[in-house]
Amino acid sequence: MTVEVRPASEFEDVRALLGPKSPQANVCWCLSYRIPSKLNRELRGPARGEHVAELLRSGAPLGVLAYEDGAPVGWAAVAPRADTSFARNRKIPHVDDLPVWSLWCIRVRPGHRGEGLSHALIAGAVEYARAQGAPAVEAYPLDNGDARVDLTMAYPGLRKNFERAGFAHAADTTSVLSGHPRVLMRLDLR
């Protein structure tokens, strides 16, 4: 198995990880934290994928994809916090005014879980942010201890995986997802 993580640039590869089976479905496409709430509610069905395609064409940083033997098998969303709703989120605090990047979604395709891809995705997202000049990367994972987490709701990642990647606890939040508190983890890149 050969795994390579690189910046998302091909729409079909992004669609393979984030797109719906049915074109009319209103799946997230990893837009809910990326765009204003009003626009997120307005974009329906195929318009969601079209918006992602436009973002890719514009060169906006969307995230990274993991490829296993050339096929896309994992996704991590990472972008400047200022370009996300985390810039205004009342439940997730700002530690300081550093122009950090946010890493908020990790997705591994079924059939490829348990292979360490989430670790490769976190590392790849950090390297991408570093290459773009990010002074630090923040994540907002679940602090689930040893409790099981529904895989659908595990998209922000787990605290222990970010600790393993060198992130440190920077603040508690008032955000709870699937019954688990989320914490603010940070990795300084300076």
Specify the overall morphology.
globular
Number of strands: 7
Cα Rg: 16 Å
Helix content: 25-40%
The pLDDT mean sits at 95
Low-confidence stretches: none
Work out the helix count.
5
* Strand residue content: 25-35%
> What's the N-to-C terminus distance?
33 Å
- Structural class comes to alpha+beta
Lateral strand order in the biggest sheet: 1-2-3-4-5-7-6
Largest sheet: 7 strands, mixed
Return the string of H and E elements: EHHHEEEHEHEE
Q: What can you see in these coordinates?
A:
- There is one protein chain.
- It is built from 5 helices and 7 strands, in the order βαααβββαβαββ.
- By secondary structure, the protein is α+β, with helices and mostly antiparallel strands.
- Strands 1-2-3-4-5-7-6 form a 7-stranded mixed beta sheet, sandwiched between helices.
- The longest helix has 15 residues, at 117-131.
- The termini are far apart.
Features of the shown structure:
single chain, 7-stranded mixed sheet, globular, alpha+beta, 5 helices, 190 residues, GNAT_dom
Concise summary:
It comes from Streptomyces erythrogriseus. The chain is of the alpha+beta class and 190 residues long. It has helices at 11-18, 37-42, 46-58, 117-131, 159-164, and strands at residues 3-7, 63-68, 71-80, 101-108, 136-139, 168-177, 180-188.
